[in-house]
Amino acid sequence: MEIKNNKKVIRAWAMFDWANSAYNLVITSTIFPAYFTAITTTAAQGDRVSFFGWNVVNTALSNYALAFAYLIIVLISPLLSSIADYRGNKKIYMQMFTWLGSISCCLLFFFKLETLELGVICFALAAIGYAGGFVFYNSYLPEIASVDRQDAVSAKGFTYGYVGSVVLQLICLVFVLKPDWFGISDASFPPRLSFLLVGLWWIVFAQIPFFVLPKGSPNFNVDVQRKISSGFAELAKVWRQLKNMTQLKKFLLAFFFYAMGVQTTMLAAAGFGAKVLQLPTSSLIITILIIQLVAIAGANLMSKLSKLYGNVQVLLFVVVVWIGICIAAYFVNSIEMFYLLAGVVGLVMGGIQSLSRSTYSKFLPENTPDTASFFSFYDVTEKLAIVAGLACFAYIEQLTGNMRNSVIALTLFFALGLVFLLALKKASRPLYTSK
Question: Which of 227, 270, 328, 381 has its CA at 20 to 30 Å from residue 182's CA atom?
Fold first, then answer.
């Protein structure tokens, strides 16, 4: 079966986003942050908790846990993607990480204050499962879509993810807001049930892409015995190749810095709303739903704008908007302002993610055989940005005791990304626009 530009294959690929984006919405963006902040804020200790004897601010702990999870991905994804490229079996690794993430989400059902360590560990493992699966999911893009279709296909994946996650979020919302309908008296049960539902949703719908997608394009040389260190040798090989790919190198520098801001904002936004603005869980869920629904339009809008003005030009505009978002977030002090800001975030969130992925794919040389290795490098860059961004965000909050200071610091990351995008635009004028 011809897989490139095949509608059935593209739909199946997008369903992977449908399956695991529920984790991103419920666990990292809405119910888990609100639940975590609520159960770890006590009259005796305030917002500080003891994690294996370490006294730490609760929201800083969750951000450190995420940073650690993404650091693990940085260390192991080069090895795994290299093996997948040479053996043509990257779907197996997608399945492995999916099971890890979904089971970890299910185990969060048992998370209470007295099981803090278990909860934080499962939270980190779920993040590893989510991020690890995306390494191989992204690398399918050049295989299933021609260059002229990659913007649209990338946007389709994000759209499926937003729709799927909203559907499950609405189901969870019923349990969280109306527990009496189901005779639930334990206030901790609805959020914990939501974590269980995420795990089940994730693994069930992931079977669709696992059934349809090919196992991967093999690039296996039986005469070469691969060693563990060869995974990192592949990463070094991509690094050496980048020296002759000026546009791709400049894009990755820009991507690293603005991804620090984008990913940290997305991962820490719910904690900011719950802690700084003291928003109830229902308000946080409404906020994230606004973001998700607007993001569907945003991802498709950016895809269309990129055809008119070029990828880099649109990315420049979006990064400027993100700088404005961070400055505005520092001063936000009401739920109405928070909702308004959420709408703007949604408009540019999906667009910058989708457009970044397809822009990187376009800058790759035609018929690149080791796409998983190149996309591993892309994912390593993004995960390093997340590690650095979250660690800085958590450290500034721990140091100053005010999460607003962490938010305003994000503007520096976006400003650096803007500088490198401007350099890319100047250096690659014939390539950055479709006109």
Answer: 270
Given a contact cutoff of 8 angstroms between Cβ atoms, the answer to whether 287 and 46 are in contact is no
**What percentage of residues in the chain have a pLDDT greater than 70?**
90
C-alpha–C-alpha distance, residues 225 and 217, integer Å: 19
Closest CA to 387 of 118, 140, 75, 143: 75
R_g of the chain, CA atoms, integer Å: 21
The predicted structure's pLDDT at residue 44: 78
Q: What is the DSSP letter of 244?
A: T
Report in angstroms the alpha-carbon separations of 178 from 35, 186, 193: 16, 12, 13
For 193-250, write each residue's pLDDT tens digit.
999 999 999 999 999 999 998 876 554 444 344 444 556 776 777 778 777 777 888 8
What pLDDT band is residue 68 in, cutting at 50, 70 and 90?
very high
Q: Which helix (H) or strand (E) holds 85?
A: helix 58-87
For residues 158 and 295, the answer to whether their CB atoms sit within 8 Å is yes
pTM recorded for the entire structure? 0.78
Nearest to 218 by CA among 55, 98, 371: 371
Please give the DSSP secondary-structure letter assigned to residue 6: -
Residue 225 CB coordination number (10 Å) = 7
What's the whole-number mean pLDDT along residues 304-313?
84
Three-state secondary structure of the chain: CCCCCCHHHHHHHHHHHHHHHHHHHHHCCCHHHHHHHHHCCECCCECEEEECCEEEEHHHHHHHHHHHHHHHHHHHHHHHHHHHHHHCCHHHHHHHHHHHHHHHHHHHHHCCHHHHHHHHHHHHHHHHHHHHHHHHHHHCHHHHCCHHHHHHHHHHHHHHHHHHHHHHHHHHHHHHHCHHHHCCCCCCHHHHHHHHHHHHHHHHHCHHHHHHCCCCCCCCCCCCCCCCCHHHHHHHHHHHHHCCCHHHHHHHHHHHHHHHHHHHHHHHHHHHHHHCCCCCHHHHHHHHHHHHHHHHHHHHHHHHHHHHHCHHHHHHHHHHHHHHHHHHHHHCCCHHHHHHHHHHHHHHHHHHHHHHHHHHHHHCCCCCCCHHHHHHHHHHHHHHHHHHHHHHHHHHHHHHCCHHHHHHHHHHHHHHHHHHHHHHHHHCCCCCCCC
Domains of the chain (ranges; CATH) run 7-217+236-427 (1.20.1250.20)
